[in-house]
Amino acid sequence: MQHSLTRKLPNGKLVRLFVEVQDTITSLTITGDFFAHPEESIEQMEKVLLGLPKTVPASDIQQKLDAYAAENKVILVGLTTEALAGMIVEALGHD
Amino acid sequence: MIDAATWRSIPLAANSAAMNMAIDEAISEAVAAGSSPPTIRFYQWEPGAVSIGYFQGLHQEVDVALCRQKGIDIVRRRTGGGAVYHDTKGEITYSVIAPEAMFPKDIIASYHVICGWIIRGLKHLGIEGSFHPINDILVGGKKISGNAQTRRGGVLLQHGTILYDLDLDTMFSVLRVGKEKLSDKQIQDARQRVTRLLDHGSFTKEELYQALLQGFTEDKLWQQGTLTEGEQRRAAVLVEEKYGRKEWTGRR
């Protein structure tokens, strides 16, 4: 099933998520008018979440994103890993 | 040897959307390689164009069929941020391309520095602008300038627009923000959040350009310059291989 979710983050930017789920996350696209340095980090962060179970808690998602961000010196502007994790869980919850 | 302490300013010129973005990247590469000095560039978009942010979904943001019908170019930027309608006559766009070390490490602080040059330029026209984080400049509480930045290979690129006489009807017809996401009331509100230089007095485009040039350069050693042959060649390749391709523009 595919889900999408759009949110304007408080003090931040607009984020639109597209998630495909079977028993696990099979596809994730994070779009919007935020900034991420380096830019490719968003594609990489999408990839590290693939295969997580559809019941994954937000804290686990955020932990994975934070680990990637720390290792690759990612700077997000107008977007946080916490907001992303919350949105992904909300999108998965539509199932 | 280049003189890395003297800025180069490339005068206002119009290009296609793909070429404008290719020139920015070609200069960035040359600055990273140490073969070009820090550079300020002013430009326009001919034909008119929509640029979308690196992370935006093309079809979520832009009415692609309407752009094609109206002869409006579409290009994906290498910077994040939002979709912008670049009216050929309605705005001036700038780019600042320089070693990252010349700016604060903090992203917002560096937006503030470069937006400060725009605010200084507006002041030369008697207009009070203010920096509105993350990346906007407001006049009278309304947005007159949007800006976007990337950093790569030790080089900072920031580009942005200063609205002069924007065609709001075209803007809200080609950008989906005015179509599906917003009610009529919200479209009215969106219009009221934007302002243009001509809403604040009678100025020519040339006066805006000269004021901006002064605002950007008055605290710097600088000289007028042009693209090098190497930058021109590289830009042509980047149009061919990246910015002119639908694989790039439609990648999200």
How does this model look, in words?
- The complex is a heterodimer of chains A (95) and B (252).
- By secondary structure, chain A is α+β, with helices and mostly antiparallel strands.
- Chain A has a single domain (2-92), classed as Enolase-like, domain 1 (2-Layer Sandwich).
- Chain A is built from 3 helices and 5 strands.
- In chain A, β1 (2-8) and β2 form a beta hairpin.
- Chain B is globular, with a radius of gyration of 17 Å.
- With 252 residues, chain B is of the alpha/beta class.
- Classes of the chains: A alpha+beta (95), B alpha/beta (252).
Keywords:
heterodimer; A: alpha+beta; Enolase-like, domain 1; 5 strands; 36% helix; B: 252 residues; alpha/beta; three-stranded mixed sheet; 11 strands
DSSP strand (E) fraction of chain B?
A: 25-35%
Structural class of chain A: alpha+beta
Main pleated-sheet profile of chain B: 8 strands, mixed
What is the H/E string of chain A? EEEEHHEH
User: What low-confidence regions of chain B span 5 or more consecutive residues with pLDDT below 50?
Assistant: none
**Mind telling me which CATH architecture of chain A this is?**
2-Layer Sandwich
Q: How many DSSP-defined strands of chain A?
A: 5
Write the layout of secondary structure elements.
The complex is a heterodimer of chains A (95) and B (252).
Chain A: E1 2-8, E2 14-21, E3 25-32, E4 35-37, H1 41-48, H2 58-71, E5 75-77, H3 81-92
Antiparallel strand pairs in A: 1-2, 2-3, 4-5
Helix pairs in contact in A: 1-2, 2-3
Chain B: E1 7-15, H1 17-32, E2 39-45, E3 49-52, H2 58-61, H3 64-70, E4 73-76, E5 84-86, E6 91-99, H4 107-123, E7 129-132, E8 136-139, E9 142-152, E10 155-163, H5 168-174, H6 184-192, H7 205-217, E11 222-224, H8 229-243, H9 246-249
Parallel strand pairs in B: 1-2, 1-11, 3-4
Antiparallel strand pairs in B: 2-6, 3-5, 6-10, 7-8, 8-9, 9-10
Helix pairs in contact in B: 1-8, 4-7
